[in-house]
Amino acid sequence: MVRTRSAAAALAAGGHVRVNGVRIDAASRAVRRGDVVTVALDRRVRVLTVTGFAERRGSADETVGLYEEEAPPPGATPEPSVDRGPQRDPGAGRPTKRDRRSLDRLRDDEP
């Protein structure tokens, strides 16, 4: 799910990982075959079931067969925001004073 072991340890220490519904606070928590691991990562919730283990560390392609990904519970994954407000064209540079004032007027009208 993450690129490094230290990033995985930080996720666990930050309370973003659950094993069988119980929040873990240390990356050293042992898991068994059949355990359900829930990871909150990048505004998404991934629910994984452990199906096996590897003898040695390997590539990401080899690890795909060691877990099954399930659908997260409804409402667990926030929907991306559709309306992001007024946007400038890429490469248009900084807004001018007139642009900033018109953007402020637009923002003030919103509830």
TrEMBL record:
CDD domains: S4 (cd00165). InterPro entries: S4_RNA-bd, S4_RNA-bd_sf. Keywords: RNA-binding. Pfam families: S4. GO terms for molecular function: RNA binding. This is RNA-binding S4 domain-containing protein. Residues 58-111 are annotated as: Disordered.
